[in-house]
Fold:
Amino acid sequence: MIKPLTNLPNYGTKTDEITIYAGPCSVESEEQFFEVAECIADLGLSWIRGGAFKPRTSPYSFQGLRAEGLELLAHARSQTGQPIVTELMNSEHIPLFEETGVDMIQIGARNMQNFRLLKALGQLRKPILLKRGLANTIEEFLMSAEYIMAGGNENVILCERGIRTFETMVRNTLDISAIPLLKQQSHLPVIIDPSHAAGIAWMVNPLAKAAIAAGADGLMIEVHNDPKNALCDGAQSLTPAQFDELMQDVKRRAAFEGKRMAR
Ligand code: PEP
Ligand code: MN
Structure:
């Protein structure tokens, strides 16, 4: 039997609410993470994100603080009262994620078709934020969600984060049509990550607004207290002030769509 997730705030399941998942690409230090987490909590938004285990293209890049990063996430959770979402890269870490009290597990684009991992997630009852693979079709994306749900975990949130195309001026191409398609093909919440789609901070705002207009249930946004010196994805990260501005814009767009911001 599926246990209802009564202790969690909305994660995109209410059709009249926009859920925001915000925070740095990776948890880098106590100072960095708390500064960002406090800004998000002060805005009254529900979810804080931050990577502890990072899938990086180069093995020489910062790979995340790993277990120490999870501890910082748990600490921020207890200080701010905001639930946390963080990326899981392999099933061996599930017990660690359970112990830490991670509220929602993110499966990154690169693991969207890691079927062994997806099957393991089907045994859990935590919500899973599943990101679309860099070169995966909508059908493949939905099939990956099915892998999780077939195991009995129906708490899946779909996240479109841009796909690889021939275009080189953006990091990825945001597939806006994924929103109506996924909503027509499934009952699952659909959120958009304009940060990884654009790869450029100034483009996050227009893409976020387009996502709301196209019917997205939420947004995942990267925010950093010092983007220039970020250890990961600084170019696409908003400062807390830019994020605050974006949230004002999103709130207005949400109202236009007859929706309010989830808290
Ligand atoms: C992330 O959210 O930091 C991330 C690595 O995203 P993606 O898996 O979409 O590249
Ligand atoms: Mn990132």
